[in-house]
Amino acid sequence: MNNPIDRKEFVKLIQENKGIIFKICNSYCHNKEKREDLAQEIVYQLWRSSHSFHANLKFSTWMYRVALNVAISYYRKSKRSDTMVSLSDNLIDIENEDDDIEDEYEKNRKLLQQFINELKELDRTLIILFLEAKSYMEIAEILGMTETNVATKIYRIKDQLKQKTINFIH
Amino acid sequence: MEDEYLKKIWNSPDSEIKDFLNINDQSFELTQTRKAKSKVKSLIFSKIIGITLGLGWILFMFILIYYCVFYTPISLGKGFFVGSLSMISLSTSLAVFLYVKDIFTLKQIDNSESVTDTQLKLASLQLSIIKSVRVSWLQLPFYTTWYLNYELIMHGGIIFRIVQILVTGLTTWFAIWAFRNINYQNLNKKRVRNLLQGVGFYSVTQALDFIKEIDNFGNDR
């Protein structure tokens, strides 16, 4: 394969961006073993698609597109076998573990992750990209929609999050 | 939670990350080999099985037609036999063609295209099974005509003729009904669902729901 990215450079890029891959896997796969499998699938597909990477596209845009497409497809394929855990169930767990969790960030991060896992596949991509501090323009480019639509949908998702947070507190 | 706070907690360090996906040049090579063997080929594998079975059936029909055309005398029975088998082969060929088309589409899917475009193509591919199923049903009436000949028609008796007309008529009606009704709009109908049960009705409806979701998601794309 004639790749514009050298293999060593590619492995280095993966290591640099593994945090993003982890978060995407975490949002689309609840099982730890399957998460590793999904991560490997993402790496494989990134390498396989690397010939399609060209200079007029930002590396992150290209990487997010491939990683999210693979994650959604993987999620949809294994959806039937995976048991989804409801938010309310997990909130109880989190409440019970309150004493053990000293770090406020850790508790809220789990809550946020749980909320993301509850969203529909495409809404999940939006909020992940928003939290990764991507501009509306880049999100629109990754997802293939308009910036206005991105803004509207992010506003709605944040509103849902706000409601869930209020419900959780009370 | 405020935007900045959300981003801050999202980016707060996760203890699991450091043990996650630790690849180097050697393990990368192994990953690629393993994945090339499993995931990519498995996507196309089911279609290839369908194509192989279809081609096997067409070949079998072709041998029978060839033998009948060149090695039997001209008769009414020969006409029914060759005509019926030709129609069965034609219908199977169409279904095989749709499967081949799916493989080409599958190979053209590019994960580096926008998420909505790629997912739309993948979901549409899942729905294409509907087209193959509806085309396949068209061959049904010809399984009730291939054995007919002059002797059976003229001397088979009134009961045979009535039963034959009824069976061929009903299968023809059913084949046309199935061809016209097996489509995305009718997936909520019980009869259509039953016809798709054996070929993955669940994945078809899931794909359809997802296409609707993509449409709603990017309605002003």
Describe the protein's architecture and organization.
- The complex is a heterodimer of chains A (170) and B (221).
- Chain A has 170 residues and is an all-alpha fold.
- Chain A has helices at residues 7-16, 18-28, 32-48, 59-78, 87-96, 104-118, 121-131, 136-143, 147-169.
- Chain A has a domain at 1-83: RNA polymerase sigma factor, region 2, helix turn helix motif (Rna Polymerase Sigma Factor, Chain: A).
- Chain A is built from 9 helices and no strands.
- Chain A is globular.
- Chain B is mainly alpha-helical.
- Chain B has 2 domains: 32-108; 112-139 and 148-221, no CATH class.
- Chains A and B meet through α1, α2, α3, α4 and α6 of A and α1, α2, α4 and α9 of B.
Provide the descriptors you would attach to this structure in a database record.
heterodimer, A: about 170 residues, mainly alpha, Rna Polymerase Sigma Factor, Chain: A, globular, B: about 220 residues, 2 domains, about 75% helix, elongated
Describe the largest sheet of chain B. none
Following the backbone from N to C, one meets helices and strands of chain B in this order, namely: HHHHHHHHH
Q: What gross morphology of chain A would you assign?
A: globular
Largest sheet of chain A: none
Total number of domains of chain B: 2
Distance between the termini of chain A: 57 Å
- What's the mean pLDDT score of chain A? 78
Shape of chain B: elongated
Q: Which fold does the CATH topology of the domain at 1-83 in chain A refer to?
A: Rna Polymerase Sigma Factor, Chain: A
**Based on DSSP secondary structure assignment, what is the total number of beta strands of chain A?**
0
Count, helices of chain B: 9
Name the quaternary structure: heterodimer
Poorly predicted tracts of residues of chain B: none
Are there runs of chain A of 5+ residues with pLDDT below 50, and where? 83-98
How helical, in percent, are the residues of chain B?
A: over 70%
